Amino acid sequence: MKRLTGIFLYLFCLVFLLSGCQHEEETDSSLQNTEHILFGYPSTDGILLYRQGYALCHDNEKKVADWVSYHLVDDYLVKNAGRTDDFRPDPELPEGERSELKDYRGSGYDRGHLAPAGDMTRSEEIMSESFLLSNMAPQVGIGFNRGIWRQLESKVREWAEDRRNLYVITGPIYAEEDYETIGPNNVAVPTHFYKIVVACTETFEDLDAIAFVLPNEKISSSPLEGFITTIDEVEDSTGLDFMHELDNTIENDLESLEAEMWSP
Questions:
Q1: Which of 154, 150, 111 is nearest to 134 (CA)?
Q2: Catalytic position from the list 36, 58, 71, 113
């Protein structure tokens, strides 16, 4: 029953948007998995890459994705695969325009997931794809990637179990024009990271969203509530446009809302 409910909610949202919005044409006919891009592409300035578990737009200058988007329903959290840790360069990106393992080696930064491995457990292939370096960004380890960022990822999975049908968009922010880089390929180190979570319910009047911006630094004993912001603020910080395929009134209301922390 839960599987049928999740599929129904996804199809409801998809039919609504297809009936009222024009979708951009695919730039590559071999890339067809648009399940993860329901509300429109936040940008198409980079290289669009489509996986089974997520989609992203890669910035070949910074060697980090501008955004990673994925659909998360409760059924996707079934534990069919364990963590693979097979970090590797993305073969769909040319050398010199992607990050490599050697860029992170000795840098002091973690290879931080944008679409987390914990959300990709439904198959070994989907899990393995989450370890492509195009889905990574340099993150402070203790206190961030292995601290509050992990807490936020766990909270999203709790929301998926509770609300059953989510869309999650994650990416970097560069608050300073002169950002740090690592490795021989000059992989950009974000100053902050954003995460946007949209719950798609049975009626679009009940469409709900929450957004976070967290600094890429060691954060001690700070509640997640303190990092809630609006989607408008994330757009201002990134130059992206997240919800443009929604009706303008719904989009404006959703993006200007600074949500209270969702339960559970």
A1: 111
A2: 113
Considering only residues 114 and 264, tell me which one the structure prediction assigns the higher pLDDT: 114
* pLDDT at residue 221, rounded to an integer: 84
Q: What is the DSSP letter of 18?
A: H
**CB atoms inside a 10 Å sphere around CB 102:** 12
- Hey, is 20 helix, strand or coil? helix
| Residue 37, CA distances (Å) to 3, 44, 217 in order | 20, 12, 29
In angstroms, rounded to a whole number, what is the distance separating the alpha carbons of residues 236 and 239? 6
> How far apart are the C-alpha atoms of 116 and 131, rounded to whole Å?
9
Average pLDDT over residues 182-188: 98
113 is catalytic: yes
- Choose among 145, 140, 82, 91: nearest CA to 113: 145
